[in-house]
Every structure is written in C-alpha cells, then in structure tokens.
TrEMBL record:
Pfam families: Cys_Met_Meta_PP (PF01053)
Family: Belongs to the trans-sulfuration enzymes family.
Keyword Amino-acid biosynthesis in annotation: no
Organism of provenance: Geothrix rubra
Protein name: Methionine gamma-lyase
Length: 397
C-alpha cells in the first residue's frame, strides 16, 4: 500500500496489523497477561523490545495499534504511549538526563512540566537555564553549555501562546549534539510535525487534541527507534503503562483528529478575529493573528491553521473575568483543553488565585486574562455565548 497516507486514512488503517480478529473495530484486549504457546516463547518475549503477546506492562494489541498510528502521524520510527502526558515526560527525563546535566527550557511553560524540571533541579542535581523570550534564538544559543543534554520546546506554549522556532532550535541541537524535545500538545501533528523540522522527540499530552473527547488521560512519545525503546525500558521499570481501554479510546479519538482539529482551528481563527473588535477586550493572543509576535514563525512551521487555543484579556480585570465565565452556557468552565467542547479558564480566579503577583507578572497572567480552548461547536452559538459573557462582564463594573 502506498504511504504516506493522509492523517485520517492513517488514523483509521495504520494499526490494523494488531487486530487478529475479523472485527472491523479492534476489540479491547482487557487482559493483563497472554497465554504462552511454548516455554521457549516465555524466554523470547521477556527479552523482546516488542513482544506480541506477553504482559500488558510490556505492551498490548491496543497500545501497539495506537502507537503505530501515532508514529505515522508524527512521521516517527516509533511511538510509545503512557498513562498521561506527565507520565510520558517523566519517562523522557529518566531515559535521557542524569545528575549534573544541563537542560534549557522556556520560562513560560506548562505548569506540570515546570514542576517536573524543578523537582529534578532540587532533588536530582539537574542544572537548568530558563529562556525568557522563547522566540529569540540568540537566547537559546547563549544558554548552551558543554554539559547541556536537552533543549525542551513548547510551541505554541501553555498558557501564553508564545511561539518557538522549531527548526532553529533543532539546528542548534544538531550543531552541539544535544537532544531536542518538543511538547506538541497544542498544535497536534495536524498543524506541526516537529520531527520533520529536525526535532528529535515529539511528546504530548494525548489527553487533549489526540484523544479529543475529554474522556481519557494519556501521553505519547514519538521519535527514533533507539530513543523510544530507551523510554519503553523506563516504562517497564516505572510502570506508567496506558490501560487497554484508554488506548482504545485514544485510537477512536484519533480517527477524527484531522476533522476535529481543522474545525476547532477554523472556529478559533474566526473567534480571535471577532474578539479583536470587542471594546471590552484589551488584547487577544492567537498565533493566527498577524499582530501576534510569533505569527511569522508560526506561519512557517504550522500548516492548515494555528490551533484552537486563544488567550484574551478583559480590560475590566478580576471581577469582570469571573462574571464573564459565570454567564456562559455553551462554553464550559474547566482547566483542560483540546476536547470537542469549548472550555474556558480564568487563571486569576482559578488556577493562579494563590500565585504571588510577581510570579503572575512573570508568566504574563493578568487579572483579566481568559484562556479559551475553542471546541467544534457551531460558530454562531459560540459567538452568542461570548456576547452573553461580555454583557455580564459589563454589568459587573
Ligand atoms: C495537559 C498538558 C500536559 C500534561 O498532560 P497530562 O495528560 O495532563 O499529564 C503537558 N503539556 C501541555 C502543553 C499540556 O497542555
């Protein structure tokens, strides 16, 4: 069969070899263990890096199937799924970092990743340089030391939607022999394929766009055979295996990934442009807007749209932000993102209520900032809902 296929054909058909039945949809292999036909098989499978049927911490037809699909979507030799995005990131750290190593990462980064890095810094002797302006390749280059072992990129970033030049960072990594890792959660492989731009490992929270229905927690690592096997060895030791049922749900979600992501991004582009014209809005952060600082780089490395995450700031601040969220009926209040349903978060009164003002200032989190994960609902319904929010915010003043 000629390859590569498009993303939807890939998601539906690429993992078929792991379905030994005639069922069109692969059944859920809800089993922890598989029957060994001969004693010899026991020895062979225990030593194998891809045993077909052994013990589910090693693998399972449902995880193998979804890994085959994810590897093709990312253009990788191999992929590994884990029990969550953070579980996947922790495996990457365990596999490739040790005490005394130096890591470079953006200061504005997903909070869980920051906590993982800070824990390694405090307990494991990792040295860290935080990049203040992720768009500035000069700052990345200046951060590199002889003991640098990893450049960690997140683009667009969570929650500030900052853009990093993936090809630029990948070239730096190649020149200095440093492993580069991109958190590809926000764009998904529909908009960005980090490996094609020279990045070594593409990692993500599969909980978000990849699964896409806010019903499963999962993570993924995609890269070279050697790198992914090194992470898989860590799965065997630490055990954050993805459950067969969750792997099946993730695969089902992937079958509509391209349809969902394109629709959500189209909605987001339209809503971002509409938000720009709202008098109550002080600022809109969306990489698809020509006024966004990273727009030019984003337009170069993202295809078919700029993702479905929007940050926008209400002029009126804390109370207005709260009232805005409370008035919404279609858009749901919640901390996650990337599902079919639109979700909104007001960091100042929710996730960052107890955060010190100077930290909030450093992270770019103002009192009026809203983080909006645009879903696949019908655009007029979303606009009518936001209008309700603006009405309530105006009455709060
Ligand atoms: C949610 C998220 C993660 C963590 O993934 P989990 O599946 O929640 O463990 C990592 N990076 C980004 C950008 C995220 O949004």
């Amino acid at each position: 069969m000629p390859r590569p296929w498009g993303p939807t054909t890939t998601a539906i058909h690429a993992g078929k070899r792991f379905n030994p039945t005639r069922a069109v949809t692969t059944p859920i292999f809800q089993t922890s263990v598989f029957q060994l036909l001969e004693n010899r098989e026991g020895a062979e499978f225990a030593a194998s890096i891809e045993p077909p049927a052994f013990y589910t911490r090693w693998g399972n037809p449902n995880t193998s199937e979804v890994e085959a699909v994810l590897a093709e979507l990312e253009g990788a030799e191999r992929a590994l799924v884990a029990a969550s995005g953070m579980g996947a990131f922790a495996l990457v750290f365990e596999a490739f970092l040790k005490a005394g190593d130096h890591l470079v990462a953006p200061a504005a980064i997903y909070l869980g990743t920051e906590q993982l890095i800070r824990r390694w810094e405090a307990e494991r002797g990792l040295k860290v340089t935080w990049i203040q302006d992720a768009l500035d390749l000069g700052e990345w280059a200046a951060a590199i030391r002889p003991e640098t072992r990893m450049l960690w990129v997140e683009t667009p970033s969570n929650p500030t939607l900052a853009i990093t030049d993936l090809a630029g960072v990948a070239a730096l990594g190649k020149r200095h022999g440093i492993r580069t890792v991109a958190d590809n959660t926000f764009p998904s492989p529909i908009h960005t394929k980090p490996l094609a731009l020279g990045i070594d490992l593409s990692v993500a929270s599969a909980t978000k766009y990849l699964a896409g229905h806010s019903d499963v927690v999962a993570g993924v690592i995609a890269g070279s055979e050697a790198d992914v096997v090194a992470c898989w060895q860590m799965t065997k030791v630490f055990g954050p295996t993805l459950d067969p049922m969750a792997a099946w749900l993730l695969h089902r979600g992937l079958k509509t990934l391209a349809l969902r992501v394109r629709r959500a991004s189209d909605n987001a582009q339209a809503l971002a442009q509409w938000l720009l014209w709202q008098p109550a809005v002080a600022r809109v952060d969306y990489p698809g807007l020509p006024g966004h600082r990273g727009h030019e780089v984003a337009a170069r490395q993202m295809v078919e749209g700029f993702g479905a995450m929007i940050g926008f700031e209400l002029r009126a601040g804390l109370l207005a932000g709260q009232r805005f969220c409370e008035a919404l009926e279609v858009v749901t209040r919640g901390v996650s993102l990337g599902g079919v349903e639109s979700l909104i978060q007001h960091p100042a009164s929710m996730s960052h209520l107890k955060t010190a003002p100077e930290v909030k200032a450093r992270l770019g989190i103002s009192d009026g900032l809203l983080r909006f994960s645009v879903g696949i609902e019908d655009q007029p319904d979303l606009i009518a809902d936001l209008e309700r929010g603006f009405q309530a915010a105006a009455e709060a003043r």
